[in-house]
Design brief:
The protein has 252 residues and is α/β, with parallel strands linked by helices. It has a single domain, classed as Rossmann fold, CATH 3.40.50. The protein contains seven helices and seven strands. It has helices at 17-28, 40-54, 68-82, 106-133, 155-175, 199-209, 222-229, and strands at residues 8-12, 32-37, 58-62, 87-90, 137-142, 179-186, 240-243. A seven-stranded parallel β-sheet has the order 3-2-1-4-5-6-7, sandwiched between helices.
């Protein structure tokens, strides 16, 4: 039930971090994967690595998801080359640093909304419409625990991710019954982003604030992604799968 043989999967933000882990896992289960991100060289390198490791067909395509024209071009190119999209993973994200809330510029705010919400809306709308008119499919939106428990220093990002969770419910209703739309909500994971963390300070916060007392590893998102992409979740739509070590769990 977790196999993806002959499926075409598109993963934005797929050249590194959680997106790269998802792309590799999908390829291992038989999918053709399309890796999309802003940097074409990074996409192509990740695609070549996946093909070398798994033997699966992989393609790297440049796409700045904050631009609707890039989203449109990505969907057009994938359909022109492969004829369909069976799984769409909206994983691209960005959370630029800022000194204080009153110094968040309009440019920064708009950029965060574009990359984390606007582009995902466009891709959900385009791909979901095509899936519903064809054989159906699965859309997976990658949110963040910032959407429900925002840090003051990532508030625009958290607001955008909260909006993405809302889109999941709306698109699930819009494109059912043949298209399933769900959210993965990760907490802190040890990806390229964590390289900038003060790991001693994080370890102490994790000890008191995360029941599993650690950050996640990239490979630990694979199970949830495969579940939502495959027939194993055939009766699941409009829901959120939380992967945060229990950080946002509440009693009762």
């Amino acid at each position: 039930m977790f196999e993806l043989n002959d499926k075409v999967a598109v993963i934005t933000g797929g050249s590194r971090g959680l997106g790269r882990a998802i792309a590799g896992a999908f390829a291992e289960r038989g999918a053709t994967v399309v890796i999309a991100s802003r940097k074409p060289q990074a996409c192509e390198a990740a695609a070549a690595e996946i093909t070398e490791q798994t033997g699966a067909r992989a393609r790297g395509l440049a796409c700045h998801v904050g631009r609707w024209s890039d989203c449109d071009a990505l969907v057009e190119r994938v359909y022109a080359e492969f004829g369909r999209i069976d799984v769409m993973v909206n994983n691209a994200g960005s959370s630029p640093l800022y000194p204080s809330l009153d110094q968040v510029s309009e440019e920064l705010f708009d950029k965060v909304m574009a990359v984390n919400l606007k582009g995902h809306f466009r891709l959900c709308a385009l791909v979901g419409t095509k899936m519903a008119a064809g054989d159906g499919g699965s859309i997976i939106n990658v949110s963040s625990t910032s959407s429900v428990s925002p840090n003051p220093m990532e508030l625009p990002y958290g607001a955008a991710k909260a909006g993405l969770s809302t889109l999941t419910v709306g698109f699930a209703r819009a494109f059912g019954p043949s298209v399933r739309v769900n959210t993965i909500m990760p907490g802190p994971f040890l990806t390229h982003i964590s390289q900038a963390w003060d790991m001693e300070a994080f370890a102490e916060r994790a000890r008191v604030g995360i029941p599993l007392q650690r950050a996640g590893r990239p490979e630990e998102i694979i199970g949830a992604a495969l579940y939502l992409a495959s027939d194993a979740s055939s009766y699941v739509t409009g829901t959120t799968v939380t992967l945060d070590g229990g950080m946002t769990a509440r009693p009762g």
